[in-house]
Amino acid sequence: MQDSRQYVPNPLRPYYVPPSIGTDALANATSSAPKSSSQGSGFTFPDIDYADYIPEASPSLTGSIKSYIDQAFWKYTTVVLGQPFEVAKLILQTRVAQEDEEDEEKPRNRHRYQYEDENKMNGYNGYEEHSSDDEPNYFTSAAPFEPPSSSRSPARGRRGRPPRDLASPRANDRHQDSSGRIHLKNPHSLLETLSALSSNGGALAMWRATNSTFVYNILNRTLETFFKGFLAAVFAVSENDILSSSAGGAVPDPSILTSTTPAATILISTAAAALSAWVLAPIDAARTRLILTPSTEGPRTLLGTLQALPTPYLIPAHLLPITFFTSTLPTLISTSTPVVLKSYLGLDPAMNPASWSVATFLGSALDLSIKFPLETVLRRAQIATWTSPAHSPPKPSSKRKAITTIVPVPQSYRGIIPTIWSITREEGFSETPKDKTAALMGKAPRRKRKGQGIEGLYRGWRVGFWGLIGVWGTSFVGGLQSGTEAATSEAGVHGGKF
After folding, report:
1. 467 CB-side CA count, 13 A
2. Which helix (H) or strand (E) holds 435?
3. Which of the four pLDDT bands, split at 50, 70 and 90, describes residue 111?
4. Tens-digit pLDDT profile for residues 20-62
5. Is residue 49 part of a domain?
6. Is 363 part of a structural domain of the chain?
7. Residue 451 pLDDT
8. What is the C-alpha to C-alpha distance for residues 462 and 455, in angstroms, rounded to an integer?
9. Residue 100 has pLDDT above 60, yes or no
C-alpha cells in the first residue's frame, strides 16, 4: 500500500514541484537523516546547520558577573590613568591669576636679599670662600688655633655658605606656603602643576577624587542611555537609531547616518545629555571641591560633600544655565557633524575614508574650542558654591565655615558672560609676543596688559587636544586596516600627508 503521505501531483497545480528536502518520505528514505520528533508535522530540515544563525547559549550567572567585573575594572583603570591630567587641568581652570605672578616670589627671597646686602656693606662679596686671613697658620706655633672674632662676619655654614634658614628655599618649598597652597609661575603648565601637587601632598595627591570621577562617569553613561530610550519612546522615534548614535566621544560616530530621522536623533541626544548633566551636577560640583581642597579639609567623602551643598543632593540654582550650555553645545556639535558632512559636503565614510577622517578631526577640534571656555566657567561656578556668600544656605541660623583651597579661587560667581570678561580683561596680565621679544632684547621696557586675553579661557587645553590626537589616530589607522581594498589604497595615498 502506498504511503498516503507520499507526494501526489495535484491536477490543479500541475507545475508545482515540492522542495527536495523537508518531506518525511525523503527523510525516511535516507538512513543518515534523523527522525522528526514531531510526527504530526510534515516537514523537517535535517541538513541545515543553524550554528551560524543562532547565537551561543546565554552565559551563566558566574560568567555574567565576571564580565561585569572585567568591564568595571577596565573603566576604573582608564580613570586612574587619566586622573592626574584631569586634576591638573581643573586646577589651572579654577585658579585666579594674580595681578603680577612675579610678586609671589618676592616674599620668599626677601631674607636672601637682605643677607646679600649686609655682606656687601661689610666688605663681603656674596657667598665667597673664607679669605686667607681667616685660615690657620700650622707652621708658626703649636698653640691651639682660635678662630678670629669679627663683628662683621656672619655665621657661615660649610664652604662659607649662609645658614639654611637664610638660604634660598628648597625645591619642594617653592610651590607651597604655610597655608598649604601651591604656587605656580606658569599658569598654563600641566607638568608644573603636577610637580607642585606631588611636592605639596605627595604622589597620591595627583589622584584626588578618583572614586568620585569613576562614579560620575558610570552614572553619566547610564542616565544618558536611559533618557535617550525614554525620550525616544515619548516622541515615537526608533530606539535603535537613538541608542546606536553615541555622542560625547572624541571622534563623531558615523552610525547616526543610518538613522531614519537624523534631526530627531540629534535633538533627543542633546536633550538626554542636558538632563543627565543636571541630575549629576551635585556629584560634579562635589568632585571639584574634593580636588581643590587639601586633605585636611573635611569632609573627604562624596556623600559628606553632597550634604555640604547649599541644597543637599540637589543642583544649586546658579549652576543650571552653565551646566546646560556645557552639556548641550558639545553634544550638538558632535552628533550633527556626520550629518553635515554627508548632506552638505558629500563625504561618505566608506567612499572617502581619508577626507572623512580629516573632516571629523576638524569637527572635534571645533567641539573642543567651544567646550573648554564653557568648562572653565563651569568649574569656577562650582567652587564658588562654597566660597561665595551669595550662594549660602537659606537658613540664616546655619553657620558655614570658609573652606581652604590649594590655589586662589574666585570668591564670587556673577554669571557666564561676566566670568568670561573677568578672565580675559581683569585677571592677571598678558604680553604680546612682540612686546616680550622687545623686552628680552632690551629695546623697550616690559609692557603688561591687564587681563589674560582669550588664552586664559583655554588653560589645560593640551589634555583634551592630545587625547583627541590619540583617539583620532587610532581610529584612522583602524579604518585603514578594516576598510576595503580600494578604500585602503586611497587612504594610504593621502595618509602620508598627515
Report:
1. 17
2. helix 433-440
3. very low
4. 765 554 444 444 444 444 444 444 555 566 666 666 666 778 8
5. no
6. yes
7. 79
8. 12
9. no
> Is the per-residue pLDDT at 343 higher than 80?
yes
Q: What is the per-residue pLDDT for 478? A: 64
Give the whole-angstrom CA distance, residue 395 versus residue 268.
39
Three-state secondary-structure class, residue 450? strand
Instruction: Look at residue 484 in the predicted model and tell me its pLDDT.
Output: 46
pLDDT digits (tens, 9 = 90+) for 183-200: 888 878 888 999 998 888
- pLDDT at position 364 is 87
Residue 238, in any domain of the structure = yes
**Contact status, residue 268 vs residue 228, Cβ threshold 8 Å:** yes
Q: How far is CA 390 from CA 283, 309, 385, 394, 397, in A?
A: 21, 13, 9, 10, 15
Taking every pair of Cα atoms in the chain, the longest distance, rounded to a whole number of angstroms, is 146
Residue 248, pLDDT score: 53
Give the separation between CA 241 and CA 239, rounded to whole angstroms.
Answer: 5
The predicted pLDDT at position 8 comes to: 75
SS3 457: helix
User: In this predicted model, which residue has the larger pLDDT, 448 or 295?
Assistant: 295
- Consecutive H or E run containing 430: strand 429-430
C-alpha radius of gyration, the chain, whole number: 35
Report the C-alpha gap between 400 and 387 in whole angstroms. 10
Distance, CA of 438 to CA of 47 (rounded, Å): 87
pTM for this predicted structure: 0.71
**Please, which residues have CB within 8 angstroms of residue 334's CB and are 6 or more apart in sequence?**
247, 248, 249, 252, 363, 364, 367
Residue 280 inside a domain? The answer is yes
Q: How many angstroms separate the CA atoms of 124 and 131, rounded?
A: 10
Report the DSSP beta bridge partners of residue 429.
450
- In whole angstroms, what is the distance from residue 383 CA to residue 360 CA? 34
Report d(CA 53, CA 51) in Å as an integer.
6
Which of the pair, 482 or 465, is modelled with greater confidence? 465
Count of all residues that appear for the chain in the document: 498
Which residues form the domain of 354?
207-407
User: At 376, which amino acid appears?
Assistant: T
CB 375 within 8 A of CB 89: no
Beta pairing partners, 182: 176
Task: Report d(CA 413, CA 26) in Å as an integer.
Answer: 84
For the segment 408-425, the average pLDDT, to the nearest whole number, is 91
> What values do phi and psi take at 497, rounded to 5?
-80, -10
- Measured distance CA(211)–CA(302) in Å, rounded: 9
Total domains in the fold of the chain? 1
Contacts of 132 (CB under 8 A, 6+ apart): none
* Class of residue 106 by CB neighbours under 10 A (exposed 0-12, middle 13-18, buried 19+): exposed
All 3 cell numbers of residue 415?
554669571
Average pLDDT of the residues in 231-241:
86
For residues 410 and 371, is the Cβ–Cβ distance under 8 A? no
